[in-house]
Amino acid sequence: MRASRHTTSLRRGAALLLLAAAAPVALAGCSSAGSAGSEPADVVESGASVNPDIDPAMIALCDQMVADGLTTDEATRLAEDSGYAARVGSIDGEPQAVTMDYRIDRFTFEVVDDVVMSCTFG
C-alpha cells in the first residue's frame, strides 16, 4: 500500500511534535544535578554584588582583573592562586563552548584582545 502525500505530511508533523516535546528534556541534561540550580551568572559592575552568596573576595578580584586590564593568563592565575576556578566565556565577542552548570566558585571572563573586559560568577 502506498502512502499518500497527506499521510506523509501527517507523519512528518507528528515526528516534529515528538522532537519538540523531547527537546526540553534533552536540554535539561546540560545542567549539573549537584548544582545550585540553573541560576544565572552574576555580573559584577563597580563591586556591586547581585547575589549575596557570592564571596566578597571574588567581587574584589573581579574588579581588580578588569581595572588592571589583566590578560587571560594573568587573570586565570590570580583566580586559581586564590582558590577559584576560571574559564573564558567569549573571545573578541565570539562565544566559547562552556557548560551551563552553576558553580559559585568560578569566574567566567569576557576577553577582548587578550584583556579581561568583564567577568561573571557561577
Give a description of the structure.
This protein is of the alpha+beta class and 122 residues long. The chain is 38% helix and 20% strand. Strands 1-5-4-2-3 form a 5-stranded mixed beta sheet. Strand 2 and strand 3 form a beta hairpin.
Q: Keywords, please?
A:
single chain; 122 residues; alpha+beta; Trypsin Inhibitor V, Chain A; 2 domains; 5-stranded mixed beta sheet; 3 helices; 5 strands; 38% helix; disordered N terminus
In N-to-C order, the SSE pattern is: HEHHEEEE
Helix count equals 3
Mean pLDDT value: 74
CATH architecture of the largest domain: 2-Layer Sandwich
Strand order of the largest sheet: 1-5-4-2-3
Radius of gyration: 21 Å
Assign an overall shape: globular
Strand content: 15-25%
Structural class: alpha+beta
Number of separate strands: 5
Q: What is the domain total for the residues?
A: 2
| Oligomer status | single chain
Distance between the amino and carboxyl termini: 57 Å
Helical content stands at: 25-40%
Main sheet makeup: 5 strands, mixed
Low-pLDDT runs of 5+ residues are: 1-11, 13-19, 25-40, 44-49
Per the CATH scheme, the topology name of the largest domain is: Trypsin Inhibitor V, Chain A
CATH class of the largest domain: Alpha Beta
